Amino acid sequence: MCSRDCCSGPGGSAKSGNTCTDRKNAKAVSVEKIIPTPQSLLYPYEVIQEIADFIVKGSNMRPKIGIICGSGLGSLADIIQDAKVFEYEKIPNFPVSTVEGHAGKLVVGNLEGAVVMAMQGRFHFYEGYPLAKCSMPVRVMKLCGVEYLFATNAAGGINPKYSVGDIMLMHDHVNMLGFAGNSPLQGPNDPRFGPRFPALVNSYNKELINKALEIGKQMGIEANMHVGVYSCLGGPTYETIAELKALRMMGVDAVGMSTVHEVITARHCDMKVFAFSLITNKCATEYSDKKDDEANHDEVMAVAKNRQKACCELVARLIRQIQASS
Ligand SMILES: O=P(O)(O)O[C@@H]1C[C@H](O)[C@@H](CO)O1
């Protein structure tokens, strides 16, 4: 409340119009102090352009496909040929990876006839990075010339039909962080990236999902392949039973701590998206005392290591098909 007699309080009408200058000034000072930089302004277009130029010039390649390797799936980048490798700490304005299983390297090179750039290590919200920082590399990819984003992740299987080691092709997501009011696009919109209000229906490219299913058949892994809904929670805690029950009721098949904000950023700048989850653990949705029911990162990494060959093959074959049809 304004302590002076000239107006009636914080939102109230001033006695003489809106002229309580003391109050206005006081507000302006405190508002300036408390408002943090909006997420969308953390990495302005020009900074993203500088990073993209650094990569394109440093590799002498212009990638068409961007790959984000999930936990333990860094070997997706090891199959790239004629690779130019950039350590994250040597890339100007790039964050560093802090999670085990995320090496912190950007690999640019050839895969099945296409120039690709792969992130061996992604950034997660729980590492302390705002979402716009987590997904900033997707904009770098875009300005490098990337048309397709391949995002992969390790996830817990909530759908009771899923087994450890299965691959779930993402056809939709539930954005839990978005439900809570967080978005990588929060803040002023730069139309050079995309529109203020991007639509997210059809975010996951149906043609690529169908091609991947066909490839799954050719590889003989169709019984271990699903099409489902992923949800990202903030982490780093794994979910409680009550949370898992709630997610299941919402139609979520697999849960993780990444990817959704990357997909939002990619769709905002009109990239085609293909994403899959490797199911590294089964999520318990009933109370029990069994220690086996508890997810842990070592298990996540071990399963990813076991299944990396199949994941690499799926990605390589899909890229071959994209190249063949372009
Ligand atoms: O980077 P992704 O989403 O693959 O990593 C998952 C989520 C956590 O970072 C970690 C938990 O084990 O794996």
Give descriptors for this structure:
single chain; 326 residues; alpha/beta; Rossmann fold; 5-stranded mixed beta barrel; 9 strands; 20% strand; globular; binds the ligand O=P(O)(O)O[C@@H]1C[C@H](O)[C@@H](CO)O1
Description:
The chain is of the alpha/beta class and 326 residues long. It has one domain: 3-Layer(aba) Sandwich (Rossmann fold). The chain has helices at 21-34, 45-59, 75-78, 131-134, 136-144, 176-179, 206-219, 241-249, 260-268, 297-324, and strands at 65-68, 81-87, 105-111, 114-120, 148-157, 167-174, 225-232, 254-256, 272-282. It has a 5-stranded mixed β-barrel. Helix 2 (45-59) crosses helix 5 and helix 7 packs across helix 10 (297-324). The longest helix is centred in the last third of the chain and has 28 residues, at 297-324. The N and C termini lie far apart (65 Å). Bound molecules: the ligand O=P(O)(O)O[C@@H]1C[C@H](O)[C@@H](CO)O1. The ligand O=P(O)(O)O[C@@H]1C[C@H](O)[C@@H](CO)O1 is lined by residues 70-71, 99, 122, 124, 153-154, 235, 256-258, 297, 300. The ligand O=P(O)(O)O[C@@H]1C[C@H](O)[C@@H](CO)O1 binds at residues 70-71, 99, 122, 124, 153-154, 235, 256-258, 297, 300. Its EC number is 2.4.2.1. InterPro entries: Nucleoside_phosphorylase_d, Nucleoside_phosphorylase_sf, Pur_Nuc_Pase_Ino/Guo-sp, Purine_phosphorylase. This is Purine nucleoside phosphorylase.
What's the CATH H-level homologous superfamily? Answer: Nucleoside phosphorylase domain
Mean pLDDT: 91
Task: Enter the CATH topology name.
Answer: Rossmann fold
User: Would you identify the regions where 5 or more consecutive residues have pLDDT less than 50?
Assistant: 1-22
Share of residues in strands: 15-25%
CATH C-level class: Alpha Beta
Query: What is the radius of gyration computed over CA atoms, rounded to a whole number of angstroms?
Result: 22 Å
Sequence of strands across the biggest β-sheet: 5-8-7-6-9
**Helix-strand topology string:** HHEHEEEHHEEHHEHEHEH
Major sheet attributes: 5 strands, mixed, barrel
Hetero groups in this structure are: the ligand O=P(O)(O)O[C@@H]1C[C@H](O)[C@@H](CO)O1
Work out the number of β strands. Answer: 9
Number of domains: 1
Helix content: 25-40%
Q: Shape from CA axes? A: globular
